[in-house]
């Protein structure tokens, strides 16, 4: 346009239009050098703009979308913020299922080991009322059920469970020589006492037994039940705490009746109730009753 303005135009507008037309016609045959330079500059600018746009569109080598050194694409969905590569949805589903199981256990009241008190005042509440005599025509042993104060478990609930255990046909009454009856006062032959670990240690320790804050004992007329074992059982009964409670009562009442410790009678056979199952099963199967359903005693070799 500057070149156009530098040319004198004393003619009319028509002559001006012809001049512009003449330049247009020459453009078909051969472009002037300056026009070629302008077009080339435009092309360069367009190419440069495309490169800039591409650079902004493509991620940098350090982003999660980049291709790694091995040529593998790393899509964002495959690399969570934690850095763990999730190839399928299985891990996430398993974690969700585990979470549901934990929530279910909480709803069912499964206790946390850290929430169980380890010590108490050493005083006890006795379950009221009494029960009917259970067992054969032999001698009748009376007992009371007591729960240490402050542990949050009603004595009546424990008494109901102990009564059920001692009345079971697979229990000590199966020999027909002994029966049991729960009382709530007066004199009794023995006491079933649920207490904290420290209290159990104190009472058992008075007779020279070391329960180590973990196990139960029978000393004198006391059947001492460790609160931790009552609520958590052991590794072999973690999914069946109710059965383990029967093992506690039957084992310690068995001591009161004069039975000593026994070992595993053989691989695959039921463990005797007088076996110290908390220390291992040694090839035996779990069992919490002194007799089987046929009335036969479940025994093993004596252990000194």
What labels would you give this structure?
single chain, 304 residues, alpha/beta, Collagenase (Catalytic Domain), seven-stranded mixed β-sheet, 8 helices, 36% helix, globular, disordered N terminus
* Beta-strand proportion: 5-15%
Tell me the span between the first and last alpha carbons: 119 Å
Q: How many DSSP H or I helices?
A: 8
Radius of gyration, in angstroms, nearest whole number: 44 Å
Biggest sheet statistics: 7 strands, mixed
At CATH's second level, what is the architecture of one domain? 3-Layer(aba) Sandwich
Helix content: 25-40%
Q: Report the order of strands and helices.
A: HHHHEEEHEEHEEHH
Which topology of one domain does CATH recognise? Collagenase (Catalytic Domain)
Q: What's the mean pLDDT score?
A: 76
List the SSEs and their pairings.
Elements: H1 2-5, H2 13-29, H3 33-57, H4 90-107, E1 124-126, E2 134-135, E3 139-148, H5 155-167, E4 178-182, E5 190-195, H6 197-205, E6 217-219, E7 222-226, H7 227-232, H8 241-256
Parallel strand pairs: 3-4, 3-5, 5-7
Antiparallel strand pairs: 1-3, 2-4, 6-7
